[in-house]
Prior knowledge:
The chain is globular, with a radius of gyration of 30 Å. A hairpin with a 5-residue loop joins β8 and β9 (about 460-465). The protein is of the alpha/beta class. It has a domain at about 275-445: Rossmann fold (3-Layer(aba) Sandwich). The strands form two sheets. Strands 4-3-2-5-6-7 form a six-stranded mixed sheet, with helices on both faces. Helices cover about 50% and strands about 10% of the residues.
Amino acid sequence: MDHRNGRRKRQKLTPEAQFRSTLDHCSKTKDLSSAISLYESAASPILTLNNLNSFLYICSNSLSDPQTRESAIDLGFKLFQRHSTENFKPNEATLTAVARLAAAKGDGAYAFELAKSVKDHGVAPKLRTFVPALICFCDGGAADEAYEVEAYVESLGLRLEESELAALLKVSVEAGKEQRVYEYLHKLRANLRGISESTVAIIESWFRGKKASEVGLIVEPNLIKDVITRNGGGWHGLGWIGDGEWIVRRTSISPDGRCCSCHEQLVCVDTDRSETEKFAQSVASLAMEREVKSNFKEFEEWLEQHSDYETVIDGANIGLYQQNFAEGSFSISQLDAVVKEVHDKSKKWPLIVLHSKRVRSLLEDASKRELIKEWMDRGALYGTPYGSNDDWYWLYAAVKLKGLLVTNDEMRDHIFELLGSNFFFRWKERHQVRYTFVKGALKLMMPPSYSVIIQESEKGSWHVPVAAGEASDECSRTWLCATRAPPETEDISDNHP
């Protein structure tokens, strides 16, 4: 065989391809000096949008190094200005990179204008495009301008993350804007389970400052209790309660939810009534899009007439727990153990949700028939229709009835992703009951006695959970406790006759 004919001759790259290949290498290695040399040495640099974005990417990634910062800004703006005269249509990546360069120059206003111009180019806005302007204003102490960016971002339906909220909190603390500080504490409460150490330090600096001791109000206790109940517990949102200086300590929370510093009882925060009802409607709407509409509608109507259940049981999850799926086995004894335990605890029958196909199979087994019939006679069993996804049924029932849900399902499948993570996570923490069987013995793991989120008490105290590693034991978690110092009691014994 003649290998000479099989040998491929290396093709000579065109100038354009060679330029792109070198630029790709500079981008991969984030090599600004080589990128500058490439641009300056090219007889006619080929500035396609793709090439432009690669240059801008290299420039924006060179901003943290003081030695390359100025060169990166100069090259980036030179390229972008040339691009503007050539009437290229920038995309989101282009505008984000230039916004970062503008912010690095301290020009938050231009960074904001660039971010807002995304809509002029028919591009879907992203949070990252607005972050440079927001952080630039926050770092520069321009609180009002930072609030303007925040308002604009929220008007687009984008949600700020912890780093942006922390920056807004910090500039508000430094400006002494107590109402804004209060607002951002609540935004952190609503969005995060554990707060990073750097953010906790900002919160701590507020409570230790003079301004925090000067603000406060007196509210009727019954009003506070009513609002807290309506909100689902753990916060009232009425403003800074009480007066005087704050006692600020790092502490821990006992297993029963009591603060080891101020001895206040933390609570298990539930979702508020309006949120829960909206969530139930959302589950029902999605279910009817994906299930046979008439079948799920029938279940909704049935549930309206059978609304006394306090606990819903995911029958398939329990019956198939630790079973051999290859053999298709289903442990009715495990399911029965859970049903009995729930009944013994509450003195009420739970609602067991199970596929009709599974129910029929169990009824055909003489050893299991009697138990299934008993559940049916008690009104404790609902068989979901053939071809249905029973996840929709047990989830909707648990939400609608505001009850507990016994399942080990982590609820991470695509159907649950449709529901949104933040609210869903809070709902699960309060309502999901997990279980285990150790040598056949059932153990139910009830929802925690308190929620690991920022909590605002009816007395005006604050408890902030510091983010911990995944493997950390909850009892070892550090919390920030901020409570008003008790008023000094005046000694009036000498005034008595």
